[in-house]
Amino acid sequence: MRLISAFGLAATVLAGTSALAADKPALGTFGVDLSAMDRSIKPGDNFFLYVNGNWMKGAVIPPDRSSTGSFQDLQISSEMRLRTLVEELAKKPNPSVEERKIRDLYDGFVDTNAIEAAGLKPIQKDLDYFAGLKSPDDVARAMASVKLGTMSIYNIGIGVDDKNPDNYSLNLSQAGLGLPDRDYYLSDDKALAETRTAYAAYLTDMMTMAGMSDAAARAARIVAVETEIAKVSWTRADRRDADKIYNPMQISELELLAPEFPWDKFIGETGIPLTTPKGTGRYAIVAEKSAFGPLAKIFAATPVSTWRDYLAVHYLRHMSAYLPKKFDDRNFAFYGTVLGGRTQQLDRRTRGVRLVDGLLGEALGKIYVARYFPPDAKAKADKLVSNLLKAYEADIQILDWMTPQTRARALEKIRQFTPKIGYPDHWRDYSALQIRQNDLVDNIQRGAVFEWERDLKRINLPVDKTEWGMTPPTINAYYNPSFNEIVFPAAILQPPFFDPNADDAVNYGGIGAVIGHEISHGFDDQGSKYDGKGVFQDWWSAADRTSFDKRTAMVVSQYDAFEPLPGLHIIGKNTLGENIADIAGLSIALKAYHLSLGGKPAPVIDGFTGDQRFFLSFAQVWRTKMRDSATRTQTLSNEHSVSDFRAIGPTRNMDDWYAAFDVKPGDKYYLAPDQRVRLW
After folding, report:
1. What does the mean pLDDT of the chain come to?
2. How many domains does the chain have?
3. Which of 26, 281, 409, 563 is the most buried (most CB within 10 A)?
4. 79 neighbors 65 (Cβ within 8 angstroms)
5. What sign has the CA pseudo-torsion 109, 112, 117, 120?
6. Over the stretch 187-218, which tens digit does the pLDDT of each residue have?
7. CATH number at residue 260
8. Residue 15: its pLDDT value, please?
9. Does the residue 365 lie in any domain?
């Protein structure tokens, strides 16, 4: 009875959202764009192209984008909305102080005439500072400078202690690379070798434009030291292993771990107090512990002159958008074109609202929500998330591979999930952030210091679990294991993910699978290491962990075989968490859809059954056409598989998909039943 009543709510949430609703769906007659399909392709040979093939043939990637498709369409829509909101503020007779800050920051960024006229004057003091560094101690202080935002061999930040999630912690990790990943320096792949050559040319040009002599030789030395850093850096697969990257130690112990680095100068520059209010020594959580000593040796062996150039050129990279056009264009030519494949820079106004979203995101988000996310939309999303959580709870109770002890803890965790939908309950206070007219560079630097000082002020306070890690206009969602929360910003709650006028199956295959994806992160290979209160601890029985790991090893093998470009394979260990979430999220969303039918058969609409519409919707969400260079960058340096295989990978592991589309042995992506990964 409990199972039925829990899921019975799902039918009421989506009541009135069938294809017979008075208002027409945004896509097609029931929520899926059937004209995008290529029915000459068998679903089992390539389900992504079966659903999106005709669209792919005609899709044109805008010159200022690395891809086009569902996500990018919503991104562009969100950016246009933000532009409208920001530019309307210019006409508002009595803007609030917060609204004036938004406008002044935006105006300073889009005023390219003023930027050109200023030249390098706004940053000359910083360039002179780098040129004046004389000792390793000086270099360490510069690396830690929050205001300058340049590169360091170690990242330092204030986060949440995984094993004590009510406490903030000082976190340290490896850093130092200007290219996306260590493989860009170490691989013999021709494309990556060409990227290294282009990177050296980029560094040379940036230093030359800044008036630095003998730039090519200096660039070569920077690439050489970054290559040494890459050699001792951890792989991406190791860096996502929560067990390996949780290494707490007293700050004083850093000098034993990596004695060649001046930790006192580095940490001293940040203003982090070395002792707690109780008088005890402060501890830090070190991520890639075995890399810290070798990084320190590289630091000590590298001449200060090389570090001066390294810091200066990465500072120029960081500040390029706020400098004369030649710096902005050259930075785009490498990071936008060589790595991202784009041939045209985004227009200045769109980049301006992105800047505001990054620096004053909740102030802008407050205006966005008032205009574009009415309370009834939030209420509908709240109920839908609640239903998916109940679906997981029901499914956990009947899993055949989970023992009673672990099942009890899993149920405890799912009941402690915190959903955050649309926007925060409490908005950020930006009153301490000073934004001045016609003062772009200093505005950016004050913004960085503002964020850091905010963290410093609360390092000894209880963790604020009400805050968000994304702004409302963001086209994304996330799971935070330390808070055991799932977060869905307002902007993702629209077609093709969620359409109140679409068929139920479409919404379950779209936003339902997204919600299921985020919930499942609490039970993926890393999220499952955190309990219901967000504490990093082992709560699984040995037998359950072994069984789970056996299944996820199959996921790694499957995705390793996927080949986005000739000779370029997905790295299954790098993308494992997201792949698990895709598979599990789709599975649980389908179960929720079936239960929402209340025992009645789903109607056939336009010749498609309910299950077919569900899977069509899921693949439609991943509709994406991406440039080859962007595909390569994502495959080598991102935790997400490219979109084609986010549609193909999960569906081929579901028995219902085989039945829905009559997929048979001999089809390219057919998997024998014993090879299908069954998690939920």
Report:
1. 94
2. 2
3. 409
4. no
5. positive
6. 999 999 999 999 999 999 999 999 999 999 99
7. 1.10.1380.10
8. 26
9. no
Cα–Cα distance for residue pair 130/138, rounded to 1 Å? 9
How far apart CA 149 and CA 596 sit, in angstroms, is 51
Output the pLDDT for position 8.
24
Examine the domain organization and report whether 39 and 158 are in the same domain: no
579 burial (CB, 10 Å; 0-12 / 13-18 / 19+) is buried
- How far apart CA 498 and CA 31 sit, in angstroms, is 9
- What pLDDT was estimated at residue 245? 97
Measured CA distances, 599 to 218, 330, 336, 611 (Å): 71, 61, 52, 14
Distinct helix (H) and strand (E) counts, the chain: 29, 9
Region label for 607, one of left (φ > 0), alpha (ψ between -120 and 50) or beta (otherwise): left
Tell me, rounded to whole angstroms, the distance of Cα 629 from its chain centroid.
Answer: 19
- pLDDT of 219: 98
Residue 68 lies in a domain: no
Q: Are residues 296 and 400 located together in one domain of the fold?
A: no
Give yes or no: residues 524 and 634 share one domain.
yes
What Å distances lie between residue 627 and 79, 88, 365, CA to CA?
21, 35, 31
What range defines the domain where residue 183 resides?
136-199+217-302
| CA gap 588, 508 in Å, rounded | 10
Instruction: Tell me which residue of 485, 578, 523 sits closest to 396, measured CA to CA.
Output: 523
Quote the pLDDT of residue 429. Answer: 96
CATH of the domain at 22: 3.40.390.10
Residue among 163, 129, 174 at smallest CA distance from 148: 129
Residues 282 and 386 in one domain: no
Is residue 525 located within the same domain as residue 612? yes
User: Are 380 and 500 a contacting pair, CB within 8 Å?
Assistant: yes
Give the list of residues 6+ apart from residue 186 with CB closer than 8 angstroms, or none.
227, 230, 231
CB half-sphere exposure, 331, CA atoms < 13 A: 19
Can you name the residues that pair with 67 across neighbouring β-strands? 626
My answer on whether 293 and 387 are in the same domain is: no
Please tell me whether residues 640 and 503 are part of one structural domain: yes
Give residue 22's pLDDT.
45
383 and 517 inside one domain: yes
Both structure tokens of 223: 């690439």
More confident residue, 74 or 22: 74
Q: At which of 302, 325, 354 does a domain end?
A: 302
pLDDT digit string (tens) for 291-340? 999 999 999 999 999 999 999 999 999 999 999 999 999 999 999 999 99
What pLDDT is recorded for position 595? Answer: 85
Q: Which pTM was predicted? A: 0.91
Q: What is the pLDDT of residue 11?
A: 26
601-652 residue pLDDT tens:
999 999 999 999 999 999 999 999 999 999 999 999 999 999 999 999 999 9
Q: Give the pair of three-digit tokens for residue 668.
A: 């390219």
Rounded distance, CA 581 to CA 575, Å?
A: 10
Place 83 in a pLDDT band, splitting at 50, 70 and 90.
very high
Question: pLDDT per residue over 91-138, tens digit each?
Answer: 999 999 999 999 999 999 999 999 999 999 999 999 999 999 999 999
Q: Which of 287, 302, 317 is at the close of a domain?
A: 302
Q: Give domain status of residue 339, yes or no.
A: no
Q: Is residue 84 included in any domain, yes or no?
A: no
Rg (CA), the chain: 26
DSSP collapsed to 3 states, 236-277: HHHHCCCCCCCEEEEHHHHHHHCCCCCHHHHHHHHCCCCECC
Q: DSSP label at 234?
A: P
